[in-house]
Amino acid sequence: MNPRIETLQEKKLVGKRMQMSFTNNHTKALWQGFMPMKGEIMNSRGHELYSLEVYPPLYFNKFNPDTPFGKWAAIEVTGPGIIPEGMEALLLPAGLYAVFLYKGRASEAFRTYRYIFETWMPGSIYETDDRPHFAVMGEKYRHDEPDSEEEIWIPIRPK
Predict the structure, then answer these.
(1) What is the DSSP letter of 56?
(2) DSSP annotation string for 125-137
(3) Which of 10, 64, 69, 139 is the most buried (most CB within 10 A)?
């Protein structure tokens, strides 16, 4: 599984954010709170959903599943607009990303992440950069169906 390397241009997102950890995961509640309200977001751009994590600096250098991070359920917007109550804006900075196409059930994606961080990253000329990680769920995303597809975007920089 080889990624494409892509330079992402800055993106503006609007969505809901929650603090969580891998051992205290509230992803389902986050999305259940976001989806009924996403239609209230003005100036939406496209139909893709963004599942985004903002990890503390050096999070992966000393991984601890109890360490909290910010997780977002969001969509891209074209510019400023009225942000619905309970939501926030996030500026996704430009930068270099390794983009992996994941096909399969959402509940089994951990295997791909394990491959990325335990096999691909150590063997590559890159290291993880301190910017948000995210997945883009487009038309072919089917949550926990075996034919579901999404893109996993990992921020990178040369070693």
Answers:
(1) P
(2) SEEE-SS-EEEEE
(3) 69
